[in-house]
Amino acid sequence: MDDVPVSPVERAAHARGAEPLTLAAAVQHAKQADEVAWNWLFNRFYPVVHRYASARLGDRHVAEDIAQEVFVAAVKMIPRLRSDEEPVVEAWFLGIARNKVVDRYRRQAREPFEQGVNPLAAGSGVADDPAELATDRLSTSHLHRMLFTLTEDQRDVLARRFVLDQSLEHIARSTGRRVGAVKALQHRGLAALQRQLGREARG
Amino acid sequence: MAEQLDPRLAELLAAWREESATAPDAAALDSARLAMRAAVQEQTPVQVWPVSAWRDRLSAALAGARSHPRLVAATLAPLAVVGLTAAGWSSPSGSPLHFVELSRERTELALPGADRAGLELSFAERRLRDAARGEAPAASLREADGLLSDARRDLPPNPPARLSTRLESDVERLNHAAQTTGVPPPAPGAPPTHCPDPSGSSPSGPGAALRLSSPCAAEPSPTPTARGGSPSSPSP
What we know:
The structure holds two protein chains of two kinds.
Chain A: H1 8-15, H2 23-30, H3 35-57, H4 60-77, H5 86-110, H6 119-122, H7 130-137, H8 140-147, H9 152-162, H10 168-175, H11 179-202
Chain B: H1 7-20, H2 26-42, H3 51-67, H4 69-88, H5 98-110, H6 116-132, H7 137-154, H8 161-181
Helix pairs in contact in B: 6-7, 6-8, 7-8
């Protein structure tokens, strides 16, 4: 496959030498089930999808499963993608990832014995030792348990804001909300987390 | 992020960010890539044939046609006849396929028991509509003239009022159209497209107002019309 170009994208890539493909060309050829184009999209968006899933689920390995599911689903759904602009395509992948995460939460709710996804289930055995408790309170698993008490929209906004480093405007465009609404979701989420921390500090 | 965060919360968020940035296993990455490729291969791509593919297919089709000429002719001939008939079914005067419409009208008129006068009025009205739409107005009006003349000739001895009224109305429309479109009368010496029936109605009767073609009052007998030259004869 490296010797003989087999697809328009690959031919174009060969013709241009080392020049990278454009996102628009990759999206266009991905719609024609072009493997090279899909490989290009994978390299470009897998890291952000995996990072988002990891942030939402708190488990790197489950996040790997989710990221794989996202790209398999994306192959089937790409005819519905109407734009080839970077923010739109990224938002599209993250939207699929978000749905997969929510599906995983729901599945976890039906299968209470599975560990590693539902932070409440995973943290059912809270440490009794004060030193262990203090360590736990600074761990991300503790944060995930607290996040699980927020709404889905609040969790989504906090993950995009504090893990993916997206601006309020970027999140607003990606999620189809107004900037003020995104800001309110962030504010309420952070306030809820701070209240929980305050209660734990007092208790 | 301008909000003042509790230091412990800020620390948790920083840890969250750092932990989420952990790269996936190489094996997981490969597995995801393979799963995606399998999904891509299952997809049926939309076929976009390059020009060379079209050329190859066309060459193959032509080669097949050359080896079976009779089969190709037997297939194409009926299709051509049907296509020609469909295309020319209502072709206006002056169009290359107008002969199809003329043939159809002749066939309708030749059918036993046909209401010749009514049919000719209908045909004439269609020509008037064509002329009003600007489709070869001169030819359309000339044919309408001939058809109205034929219709007047084919009227039964005591025509129903609806036919007489219709004929008068069509003659008026014809004259009006001829005036508004400025269609000149046929050149002197040209065969008249119609002739009023000398034994027929009074000068004020149907057909008396026909002015488009050359006057035929002096002509002793009916003359062929512009529609193929069928001699005027009483309808059965």
